[in-house]
Design brief:
Largest interface: A-B, 32 and 32 residues
Number of strands of chain A: 9
Radius of gyration of chain A: 20 Å
CATH superfamily of the largest domain in chain A: Nucleoside Triphosphate Pyrophosphohydrolase
CATH class of the largest domain in chain A: Alpha Beta
Distance between the termini of chain A: 51 Å
CATH architecture of the largest domain in chain A: Alpha-Beta Complex
Number of helices of chain A: 5
Strand content of chain A: 25-35%
Oligomer: homodimer
Helix content of chain A: 25-40%
Amino acid sequence: MNHTYQYPRAALTVDCVVFGFDDGSGALQVLLIRRGIAPFKDHWALPGGFVRVEETLDEAARRELAEETNLSTVFLEQLYTFGTVDRDPRERVVSVAYYALTKPADHTTAASTDAAEASWFPVSDVPPLAFDHATILDTALARLRGKLRYEPIGFELLPPKFTLTQLQRLYESVLGTEIDKRNFRKKVLGHELLIPLKETHRDGPHRPAQLFRFDPEKYERLKKKGFLFEL
Amino acid sequence: MNHTYQYPRAALTVDCVVFGFDDGSGALQVLLIRRGIAPFKDHWALPGGFVRVEETLDEAARRELAEETNLSTVFLEQLYTFGTVDRDPRERVVSVAYYALTKPADHTTAASTDAAEASWFPVSDVPPLAFDHATILDTALARLRGKLRYEPIGFELLPPKFTLTQLQRLYESVLGTEIDKRNFRKKVLGHELLIPLKETHRDGPHRPAQLFRFDPEKYERLKKKGFLFEL
DNA sequence: CCAAAAGTGTTCAGGCTACACCCATGT
DNA sequence: ACATGGGTGTAGCCTGAACACTTTTGG
């Protein structure tokens, strides 16, 4: 076969499930855009769009993220590819879904291309979504929960400097469980991947909290030696 | 946007990493086909092909598997989507990779469409592969190893009736570790997901081995109650 | 009777769980 | 001084790892 394949082709898109964590409410959030165009005009949807022939899938995901939400330099990982025949009413569209984790500082969102509006919603209370985006969101949530247990990705949802209580609230919120404070601290400090800073976090009429930062280099070194992060 | 998207489109394929376990050699195997057409004519490659507009991705994977290898009713799960720009020399091709697990009884392979020849290779000793199929195979192996630990998919690689020793050899081979016989049996029987049969497996000048079968219904019930399989 | 794999229990150490009080600060 | 969240240690339990001999069969 030296000629190219000429049968009708599916269109290819990427969709991104962007997670953020709001320390105030302690709730996990998703970034949604309100569609400015048909189909599903004015419905909420995941940011995404068509893949160009000259860009990789990862590039397409980052580009769409930048265009529609002004986010960059976030944790981004491929999730799953959704390819049922009727997921888009216009024609056959296969979508490679990604999920992204953003730190609160990056939450400077502003809509632009294709998106009339962008906004954060708590994952426990999202509006009806366009296409099969509810399924994609569920898949992303399941993946996030699974991954949080055995890989240190929770830090991607927190500011660079954070307290142990913030980290614990994040775990509790995402996993939907209550965790014992002492046990949590013992375990997470036991890994020796958190560096205590000289600063503290002042926040109201009580003792200030120690700030930490995650040490990604040390984690990489340990990982190569067969180390396994957990909880 | 009421018109369809008209920019140049990537072609979409599925590729399948088919694993089998050879109890004789105790080695994990992959099914490869020798390509009958360019590019990479006469090279070994993963079975796969173009996705048709009227079929889902899962259907496309099953169809290609049936066409190229005569396999059906196997465990099949989406793996990852590979979309670098130059992975196919002809044009832009995005490939949704699947991995499949087959029981030895299903190994009645015979090549047909597009494939000049189909053959099993031990994963530790595969020939050079076409396209980026070596990368796909590595990804599939990593996934299989990860999944074997916390989901009962090992049974998909064994005949319906099997001995604990066969199961242990499978785990040892895939995970690349040695496992203590007594501990392994304690753990795996502790789940109470293996049903001891009234039959034994006679195999040479030694005590015959008890045969078991996996109980998928019980597993489904336990899973819904939050049970987690492990090792 | 010999070779070969099947089958079986106990001990020990380390990790996980449960649990309650004092500390530092702002108002 | 009081209200608020930050921070800390221990004891019991359970799980995982290490380890060696008897049993059943075919040749």
